[in-house]
Design goal:
The complex is a heterodimer of chains A (272) and B (332).
Chain A lengths: L7 E2 L5 E2 L2 E12 L2 E12 L3 E5 L6 H8 L7 E6 L2 E2 L5 H6 L2 E3 L12 H7 L9 H6 L2 H20 L15 H14 L4 E5 L7 H18 L2 E5 L3 H7 L2 E6 L2 E6 L1 H5 L2 H8 L5
Parallel strand pairs in A: 5-10, 5-11, 8-9, 9-10
Antiparallel strand pairs in A: 1-2, 3-4, 3-6, 6-7, 11-12
Helix pairs in contact in A: 3-6, 5-6
Chain B lengths: L2 H34 L6 H17 L5 H8 L12 H23 L8 H23 L16 H7 L14 H23 L1 H11 L1 H6 L4 H27 L8 H12 L4 H27 L4 H15 L14
Helix pairs in contact in B: 1-7, 1-10, 1-11, 1-12, 2-4, 2-5, 2-10, 4-10, 7-8, 7-10, 8-10, 11-12, 11-13, 12-13
Chain lengths: 272, 332
C-alpha cells in the first residue's frame, strides 16, 4: 500500500514517513529543448527513491532542479510541506539537501579531511573573529564538527586516506569521499547522481552497501539516479522512470519492471 | 671580521627588507589568483588607490574637489580637519571593502566562467579606470604619507653593531621603516594563513578556489566569497600602499611597483602564499647582492632595474611553475 501517505514499515524494518519533497508539474526548458515535461512525483521520509531512464531522459536535469542548480520554468517544488521559492544552489544546500555529482566535484587541492569538513560549513555558527583566535564557542564547535566528520570517515571506511590530497585518489575512492562530504552535512535529503557510474562490480557492491547502510543507520532519505537496472531494483523502495523528459512509470521496483512502457523504453519496440 | 664581509651582510639585510615589500604586493596577486583564477593586473593600482585614499582622509581633503569646483564654481579643497592615522586606516579599509563589492558586482560577477584572458583584460581596464578615479578624487600631485611610522636609519643598530668591524666599519645601516615593514608583513602573513586554514570563511575560500559547483553544493555563496577575496586583496593593497607610500611618497608611479611583483610571482609560483614571500626575499636579496658583487664593480651599476626580470626569465625556462607553484600534472 505505498500509494497512501500514511507512514509504514518496510519488510526489512525501516520506517517510512510522510512526504518530504514533492515535485508538482515540473517543466524545464533550455531554449527550444524541453528537458523535463510536466513531471510530478514525491519523495517520502526515510525511503530510497530512484530516478532511472535511458541516456538523455532528463534524470540529471531533474536532480539539478531538486538541488537548485536549475530553476524550472513551470511547476512547484514543495519541501517539508512548504512551497520552495526559486533558489540558488547554496541556499538549497543550507536547507539540508546535500548532493554528489555524476562526474565528481571535489576540492582536488585539499585533503580528504578538509574536503569532508567543508560539508560541515553550515553547522558552523561562530563568528569569523572568534574562529580566528580560536576561543570558546569556536573551539567547541570545531571539536563537534571534527567528531561528526570522524564518524562519517569511519562509516565509509576511508580512515587510511584522510590526509591524502583528493587529487591523488583513484576514481572509486573519490566517489566515496564525495559521498562522505555530502553525508557530513547530516542532510535531510541526500541526492546521488549516478553513484556507481564507471565502477567495477566490486566497487559497485561496496557503494550499494554504503548507500543501504546510510539509509538504514542514519535514516537519511535518499534520491538517486542510476543507469544500472539491477542495482536500482535492489536498492530502492520506489522508482520513477523517465524517457525523453516525460515520466513513463512510477512505483515499486516490481511494478516498474512489469510496466510495458518501461520495457519498451529500455529494450526498444519494433515500429511495424 | 673583515669589513668587506660585513658590508656583504648589510647588503643581504637590506635586500631582505626590500624583498618583504615586493612580497607584500605579490601577496595580493596570489590571494586573488588562488580564489578566482584572475590574474589581477590592477593590484598595484589598488595599492595606489588605497594610499591616496588614506592620505586624502587623513588630510581632510574633499573627494572630487576639482570636479565639484569646476561644476559649481566653488573653491573648496579641504574640510579643515585632520583625522588621526588609526581612524583613517580603518576608514580606508572600509572604502576598500566597498570598492571590492563594486568591483565584483559591476564587473567580475558578469564575467564568471569566461576565459582567463578575458578576466585579465578586465583587470587591465580596471587598473586604468581606478587610476583615473584616484586622480579625479584626490588630485594628481605627489603627497607625503605620514602615519607615524619610524623613518630613517636606526642609529641604535648602527652604534651597537659598529664594534663588529675594524676602523672603517660604522655598523649596519638599516632603515627603520624597512624593519617595521618586515614586522607588519610577517603579522599579515600569519593572519592570512590562520584565516585561510582555520576559519569557516577561509575554508570556504579555498573550496571556491578549487571547484565552483562543489562549493555551491555544500552551501557556499560564491558571490560572498568573491567579495571577501577582493576585500582581502584590497586590505593587502592598503598595507602595501602604506609601506611604499611612507617610503617613497604617494605618487602615480606607485602603481608600477606591481610590475616588480611579476618576477616575484614567477619565482614563487602564482598559487602559493609562502612562495610569494620567499620569491620576494630572493628577488630582494638577489638584486642587491648582484649589484654589490658584480653590477657595481664590473657592469657599471644600475643592475637592480633588470636583474629581477632576467632571473624570472631563467625560471620560466627551467621551472615554469615557480618554486612553490602547483606542479603541472595532467592525469590522462
Amino acid at each position: 500500500m505505498k500509494d497512501t501517505v500514511d507512514p509504514y514499515v518496510t519488510e526489512d524494518g525501516r520506517q517510512i514517513g510522510g512526504v518530504l519533497m514533492e515535485m508538482k508539474n515540473i517543466t524545464l526548458r533550455f531554449g527550444g529543448v524541453v528537458a523535463i515535461k510536466d513531471i510530478s512525483f514525491d519523495i517520502r521520509e526515510g525511503e530510497v527513491r530512484a530516478i532511472i531512464g535511458p541516456n538523455g531522459a532528463g534524470k540529471s536535469s531533474m536532480l539539478n532542479v531538486i538541488s537548485g542548480f536549475y530553476n524550472p520554468q513551470e511547476g512547484e517544488v514543495f519541501y517539508k510541506g512548504e512551497k520552495r521559492p526559486p533558489m540558488r544552489p547554496y541556499q538549497v544546500a543550507r536547507l539540508g539537501i546535500a548532493r554528489t555529482f555524476q562526474n565528481i566535484a571535489l576540492f582536488d587541492g585539499m585533503s580528504v579531511l578538509d574536503n569532508i569538513m567543508t560539508g560541515r560549513l553550515n553547522h558552523m555558527k561562530a563568528g569569523m573573529w572568534k574562529q580566528a583566535i580560536w576561543k570558546g564557542a569556536a573551539e567547541r564547535e570545531e571539536t563537534e564538527n571534527r567528531e561528526a566528520v570522524e564518524k562519517v570517515i569511519d562509516f565509509l571506511e576511508i580512515q587510511a586516506i584522510r590526509k591524502t590530497p583528493v587529487g591523488r585518489l583513484p576514481y572509486g575512492l573519490k566517489k566515496r569521499v564525495e559521498l562522505a562530504r555530502a553525508l557530513s552535512a547530516e542532510p535531510s535529503l541526500l541526492l546521488l547522481d549516478e553513484p556507481m557510474a564507471g565502477m567495477n562490480v566490486e566497487e559497485k557492491e561496496d557503494m550499494s552497501r554504503f548507500i543501504l547502510d546510510v539509509n538504514d543507520e542514519f535514516g537519511t532519505t535518499i534520491a538517486l539516479i542510476e543507469h544500472d537496472m539491477g542495482v536500482v531494483m535492489d536498492l530502492s523502495d520506489r522508482v520513477v522512470v523517465m524517457d525523453y523528459g516525460k515520466k513513463i512509470g512510477d512505483g515499486t521496483p516490481d511494478e516498474v519492471r512489469n510496466n510495458q512502457e518501461v520495457i519498451d523504453a529500455y529494450l526498444g519496440v519494433s515500429h511495424d | 671580521m673583515p669589513t668587506e664581509f660585513l658590508y656583504g651582510v648589510e647588503v643581504v639585510l637590506n635586500g631582505l627588507m626590500a624583498g618583504v615589500l615586493y612580497a607584500l604586493v605579490a601577496l595580493g596577486f596570489v590571494l586573488i589568483f588562488k580564489a578566482s583564477g584572475i590574474f589581477n593586473y590592477a593590484q598595484g593600482v589598488l595599492a595606489l588607490f588605497a594610499a591616496l585614499t588614506l592620505v586624502g582622509i587623513m588630510e581632510g581633503q574633499v573627494p572630487f574637489a576639482h570636479l565639484i569646483n569646476a561644476i559649481f564654481g566653488t573653491e573648496i579643497h579641504h574640510f579643515g580637519w585632520h583625522v588621526p592615522a588609526v581612524l583613517a586606516i580603518l576608514l580606508t579599509a572600509a572604502v576598500m571593502v566597498l570598492l571590492a563589492w563594486c568591483v565584483h558586482n559591476f564587473v567580475f560577477r558578469h564575467l564568471v566562467g569566461q576565459e582567463p584572458i578575458i578576466l585579465f583584460m578586465a583587470t587591465i581596464g580596471l587598473a586604468y579606470f581606478l587610476e583615473g578615479v584616484g586622480d579625479l578624487m584626490w588630485g594628481s600631485d605627489i603627497k607625503t604619507l605620514d602615519v607615524g611610522l619610524p623613518q630613517g636609519a636606526s642609529f641604535w643598530l648602527e652604534e651597537n653593531t659598529a664594534f663588529l668591524g675594524g676602523e672603517d666599519f660604522y655598523g649596519f645601516f638599516i632603515d627603520k621603516l624597512d624593519m617595521v615593514a618586515t614586522l607588519v608583513a610577517a603579522l599579515l602573513v600569519i593572519a592570512l594563513v590562520l584565516f585561510s586554514q582555520y576559519t569557516k570563511q577561509g575554508r570556504a575560500m579555498r573550496a571556491v578556489a578549487d571547484d565552483h559547483q562543489a562549493a555551491l553544493s555544500v552551501g557556499i555563496s560564491l558571490n560572498f566569497i568573491w567579495v571577501l577575496v577582493w576585500s582581502l586583496a584590497g586590505f593587502v593593497a592598503l598595507v602595501a600602499g602604506i609601506m611604499w607610500g611612507a617610503k617613497s611618497g604617494v605618487q602615480f608611479s606607485l602603481s608600477l611597483i606591481a610590475l616588480k611583483a611579476l618576477p616575484v610571482l614567477m619565482l614563487g609560483g602564482f598559487t602559493s602564499i609562502p612562495g610569494a614571500i620567499v620569491g620576494g626575499l630572493i628577488i630582494g636579496v638577489g638584486e642587491k647582492l648582484f649589484e654589490f658583487l658584480i653590477g657595481a664593480p664590473y657592469l657599471g651599476g644600475a643592475t637592480e632595474n633588470w636583474f629581477a626580470y632576467v632571473l624570472a626569465l631563467i625560471f620560466l625556462v627551467f621551472r615554469p611553475q615557480g618554486l612553490f607553484g602547483e606542479k603541472i600534472i595532467e592525469r590522462v
